[in-house]
Amino acid sequence: MIRVLLVDDQALVRGGFRMILRAELDIEVVGESADGSQAVAAVSALKPHVVLMDVRMPVLDGIEATRRILGGDSGARVLILTTFDLDEHVYAALEAGASGFLLKDISPEQLAEAVRVVAGGDALLAPSVTRRLIGQFARRQAPPDASARLSSLTERELEVLRQLARGLSNQEIAQALFVSETTVKTHVAHVLDKLDLRDRVQAVIFAYEAHLVEPAG
């Protein structure tokens, strides 16, 4: 059972999320918080697997709350949900360690699936923000150790990283490279381990910062 904490300063929004997620047999809403400060305390007390976190809240905003939660040892993963897709929110959320960033206009089915993806250790970004996001990261100066880190990867692992950065799922990468999905998962795990990255989102960011791939058009 996936334990979820809902964090939003609007009771109506929390109620909507609660209703959606409680309809799922594998998801349990274990608590709610109205601001980031409450969320930090609730994570410690309730031990959720996933925190659905709003950005703009009183007392303590969602970005700082995310930073504090992930700076501890709770093991919780944070999925940012917001009505805003402003770039500074995306950057700040990812740099704080969030595993995903979604807009609140997603469907109930997409919300439940996002919780499952993040709980499973993966990461995701709303398609509506990904293009601008990667463009911004691609314009950054490459990390000084990027070449050395990339040199630790095999040719096949480099190709998997390129495909990851283009937004392909494991299934799509498997089809593109004519290998099994299990093999792709193994390659992805090796890439994250060798590059010392937390998840797919960090892998995508690194690939663009290192100029392994460039934004299309």
From TrEMBL:
<dbReference type="InterPro" id="IPR039420">
    <property type="entry name" value="WalR-like"/>
</dbReference>
<keyword id="KW-0805">Transcription regulation</keyword>
<dbReference type="InterPro" id="IPR001789">
    <property type="entry name" value="Sig_transdc_resp-reg_receiver"/>
</dbReference>
<feature type="domain" description="Response regulatory">
    <location>
        <begin position="3"/>
        <end position="119"/>
    </location>
</feature>
<dbReference type="InterPro" id="IPR058245">
    <property type="entry name" value="NreC/VraR/RcsB-like_REC"/>
</dbReference>
<keyword id="KW-0804">Transcription</keyword>
<feature type="modified residue" description="4-aspartylphosphate">
    <location>
        <position position="54"/>
    </location>
</feature>
<dbReference type="GO" id="GO:0006355">
    <property type="term" value="P:regulation of DNA-templated transcription"/>
</dbReference>
<dbReference type="Pfam" id="PF00196">
    <property type="entry name" value="GerE"/>
</dbReference>
<dbReference type="Pfam" id="PF00072">
    <property type="entry name" value="Response_reg"/>
</dbReference>
<keyword id="KW-0238">DNA-binding</keyword>
<dbReference type="InterPro" id="IPR011006">
    <property type="entry name" value="CheY-like_superfamily"/>
</dbReference>
<dbReference type="GO" id="GO:0003677">
    <property type="term" value="F:DNA binding"/>
</dbReference>
<dbReference type="InterPro" id="IPR000792">
    <property type="entry name" value="Tscrpt_reg_LuxR_C"/>
</dbReference>
<keyword id="KW-0597">Phosphoprotein</keyword>
<protein>
    <submittedName>
        <fullName>Response regulator transcription factor</fullName>
    </submittedName>
</protein>
<feature type="domain" description="HTH luxR-type">
    <location>
        <begin position="146"/>
        <end position="211"/>
    </location>
</feature>
<dbReference type="GO" id="GO:0000160">
    <property type="term" value="P:phosphorelay signal transduction system"/>
</dbReference>
